Amino acid sequence: MRTSKYLLSTLKETPASAEVISHQYMLRAGLVRPVASGLYTWLPTGLKVLKKVENIVREEMDKAGAIETLMPMVQPADLWQESGRWTDYGPELLRLEDRHHRPFVLGPTHEEVITKLISSELSSYKQLPINLYQIQTKFRDEIRPRFGVMRGREFLMKDAYSFHLSQECLNNTYQDMHSAYCNIFERLGLDFRPVIADTGSIGGDASHEFHVLADSGEDDIAFSDSSDYAANIEKAEALAPDTERGAATAELTKVATPNVHTIEDVSKFFDVAAKDVVKTLLVLGEHEEGETAPVVALVLRGDHELNEIKAEKISGIAAPLTFATDEQIKAVANCDAGSIGPAGLAIDIIVDRSAAVMADFICGANESGYHYTGANFDRDIHNYKVEDIRNVVAGDPSPCGNGKLTIKRGIEVGHIFQLGEKYADAMNAGVLTETGKNQTLTMGCYGIGVSRIVAAAIEQNHDENGIIWPDAIAPFKVVIIPMNMHKSHRVQETAEKLYAELTAAGVEVLFDDRKERPGVMFKDMELIGIPHAIVVGERNIDNAEVEYKNRRSGEKSLIAIDEAVNFVL
Ligand code: ATP
Ligand code: MG
Ligand code: MG
Ligand code: MG
Questions:
Q1: Ligand 3 center to 197 CA (angstroms)
Q2: Fewest C-beta atoms under 10 Å: which of 123, 162, 314, 466?
Q3: CB 267 within 8 A of CB 279
Q4: Counting atoms of ligand 1 from 1, which one is nearest the CA of 303?
Q5: In angstroms, rounded to a whole number, what is the distance separating the alpha carbons of residues 314 and 274?
Q6: What are residue 406's DSSP bridge partners?
Q7: Helix, strand, or coil here: 190?
Q8: Contact at 8 Å (CB) between 509 and 476?
Q9: Predicted local distance difference test score (pLDDT) of residue 400
């Protein structure tokens, strides 16, 4: 590829909207462009990386015996009514109508469609087990899309669904998927950890998340310092109920059970009159950044299914209910930064979540620059400050009994789950067994955030000059940088020759044939993060040499022009 015939689209300035490094570099290196909140166009360079991630995922899924399929992104509402998630899923589910006023959803996940398919396609135990996957665009109307494609509203996911007659059979496939995921993240060259995950409301069965370690991650994960134990922090904590933080969990869980989802309970808990809570939602919209008006902010946020339940209940009193926007949250947060009391009160109610998540949230909120002062948490719940919350967990003995726990931040890039009979039961998916009886299927589901991985990889692989791609997912393997090619015939000739040879050898090579100063070219190519650079200059040609530069190590060396192709192969 020649840059003159390509869409390079690099930016010199860091866009102000981008908080984390991967988002900044994805914009600056010309990988993506925003279209609307949480919606992105993948530019050619970004798409090359995305496709590479996708292919590694595909190859390892195929190797593990999963079969590729493709389901529609738009799904009829009746499937969701059948599974019960039409009411349970909440506002992340984008609902729409066709011209005949028939309701549809944009698929945030595909359990319903696949279970329906299986129930009609399979009839005999002989067809089991089966594991089907797809790589498909999902839509989740995230309340706070952020960090670029890391938490988009439209994103690319690999999702697989396996069906079985026995728990034992499900366990086997689950293990196969666990191994396939490890292979995938190893091939991607990422520092990752599988962690035991909380199965939450679905309950009971096994679940693991795969986290890429990075400070910008939104999740806390707990490791034992002397065993393999690693768990999502909610799980680690649930296993250690007699710790201080465990006790706090129990306390908060009391207010976090579904029966407190009423405006009265919320207002009682926070000692705020119900009508004020209502008012808050209205005042919030008018609040200016920097103002110190006495504001109570009821910020409904998080991912959350149950927001809708709350929304329904609250909207009885407070219709129309709107969720606070990012700007509004910031405005409220700014009005009481550091000081509590009459100036204002930012209350974040995640009624449906555990204390651990609440703690997580407080940490996250502070780190992202929002000051949730925690006055109410302190008074009504316990006296934890952000640091306390982290410290209480770190240094608890590890639930596995081995060593102490340390906490690190992680980006959830994969999640595998034993679903049991939940969907098969609701949607009548069964087959005839050997003895002719109809038996409900047992199911597992396995997700990977393909587009999120691109951002996560950058979080782990960059320096102050830009991205440093792991070889496996680099958009180009080699870049040819000719110095002042338009002034030197010899440089042009040599660069063209190398370009032709590399192309013929099947190497993905970018030839920077722009009429730019060498400095501009170097900066751009470092920003884009191409692993190997060949610099062609007048002086080195005198010795029949070119300069080689390695993006990761920064190491430079002179190599004979004749050996350049073999050198980078
Ligand atoms: P999160 O906790 O980050 O909201 P999740 O637990 O809701 O993710 P899953 O339902 O487990 O997500 O989906 C499988 C995978 O899809 C996740 O592990 C993650 O890698 C990816 N994913 C989920 N939501 C998003 C998003 N909004 N943008 C990009 N990738 C996402
Ligand atoms: Mg989510
Ligand atoms: Mg999650
Ligand atoms: Mg998950």
A1: 9
A2: 123
A3: no
A4: 4
A5: 10
A6: 223
A7: coil
A8: yes
A9: 58
Give bridge partners of residue 158 from the DSSP assignment.
135, 448
- Ligand positioned closest to the Cα atom of 155: 1
Q: Ligand 1: list residues with CB < 6 Å.
A: 140, 142, 151-152, 155, 157, 303, 412-415, 447, 449, 451-452
How much is the pLDDT for 407?
79
Interatomic CA distance for residues 494 and 114, integer angstroms: 55
Are 556 and 503 contacting, i.e. CB atoms less than 8 angstroms apart? no
CA of 412 to the centre of ligand 1 (A): 7
Rounded distance from Cα 449 to ligand 1 centre (Å): 6
Ligand 4 centre distance from Cα of residue 203 (Å): 14
Distance from the alpha carbon of residue 217 to the mean position of ligand 1, in angstroms: 12
CA 93 to chain centre: 17
| Distance from C-alpha of 93 to C-alpha of 86, rounded to nearest angstrom | 8
Q: Which helix (H) or strand (E) holds 389?
A: helix 386-393
What's the pLDDT at 228? 75
Beta strands (DSSP E) in 226-329 are 230-232, 296-299
539: tokens are 């002086």
pLDDT tens readout for residues 351-398: 222 233 333 333 233 332 222 322 222 222 222 333 333 444 444 855
ipTM, two decimals, is: 0.99
Atom 22 in ligand 1: which residue has the minimum CA distance? Answer: 449
Ligand nearest to the CA of 217: 1
Structure-token pair, residue 241: 């109920």
Give the position, in ligand 1's atom list, of the atom nearest the Cα of 151.
28
Atom of ligand 1 nearest to the CA of 414: 18
Q: Where are the alpha helices (DSSP H) in 197-262?
A: 233-238, 244-255
Phi, psi of 439 (to 5 degrees): -125, 135
Low-confidence stretches of the chain (pLDDT beneath 70): 199-205, 234-395, 397-404
Query: Structure tokens of 219?
Result: 């999740």
How far apart are alpha carbons 9 and 123 in whole angstroms?
53
List the structure tokens of 541: 């040609």
Region at 229 (left for phi over 0; alpha for psi -120 to 50; beta for the rest): beta
Structure tokens at 23: 């988002």
DSSP-derived secondary structure for 80-144: HHHHTHHHHS-TTSEEEE-TT--EEEE-S--HHHHHHHHHHH--BGGG-SEEEEEEEEEE---SS
User: What's the Cα-to-Cα distance from 189 to each of 390, 453, 470, 555, rounded to whole Å?
Assistant: 29, 11, 6, 20
From 93, 139, 143, 415, the mutation candidate for ligand 1 (largest count of ligand atoms within 8 A of CB) is 415
Structural contact between residues 82 and 425, judged by C-beta atoms closer than 8 angstroms: no
Report pLDDT for 345. 26
Closest ligand (CA of 451): 1
Residue type at position 495: A
Place of tokens 């040819």: 480
Ligand 4 mean position, distance from CA 209 (Å): 7
For residue 504 the two structure tokens come to 């013929």
